Amino acid sequence: DFLFFWGAVFLITTTLVAFLKKENQELIPAKEETKGITDTYRLLFSIIKMPAVLTFCVLILTSKVGFSAADAVTGLKLVEEGVPKEHLALLAVPMVPLQIILPLVISKYTAGPQPLNTFYKAMPYRLLLGLEFALLVWWAPKVKHEGGFPVYYYAVVVLSYALHQITLYSMYVAIMAFNAKVSDPLIGGTYMTLLNTVSNLGGNWPSTVALWLVDPLTVKECAGAQGHTCATAETAEV
Known about the structure:
Elements: H1 2-20, H2 37-48, H3 51-62, H4 65-80, H5 85-91, H6 95-110, H7 116-143, H8 151-182, H9 188-217, H10 233-237
Helix pairs in contact: 3-9, 4-7, 4-9, 6-8, 7-8, 8-9
Subcellular location: Membrane
Protein name: ACATN protein
Pfam families: Acatn (PF13000)
């Protein structure tokens, strides 16, 4: 029902735009910096060769390594400790209004001449929240009872998620504002696409590596089988 409703809204909205929105007939001459795919990639290569851009790309590709495990694995580990998936899904609902409001609030602080200051200030708090997420996973079996988990545990999880969203969006909005500020207006689309792609890649590859490392770094114990570590998938199955 949820998907059907928003699918209908999407179809109606795009149909109205197609029929009611009129194109501007006045042609505004603009300088063409690129003429095709080859020129576009040649331009991207020339941009990324600039020392400042290259340094920024290296920094942004490695800046989120410290958050990767907490962001990618916490939910999976909570489910592993017995927290129902449907409860975690419901806990995401209160985050939606927060995710709508946060960019509006944070944009006031990133509109100045130094938008990355917000990025720097949010980073240590997000690192500390990673430790707090680890404590949440450790705490889960301690408070679990036959009926599930107490309400105060879910309250702590919601509060932790809310604080995490604040730090996450502070860094996200700040980096987007910085990318928009430094991009050359003549090639703004190409410039911003490159920087935003690097920013997205800087958040995705650490999460992928963290998920890949979960299994080999997890300590496993075999109950009732002395001398076996169950460290590999083969031994765990036996």
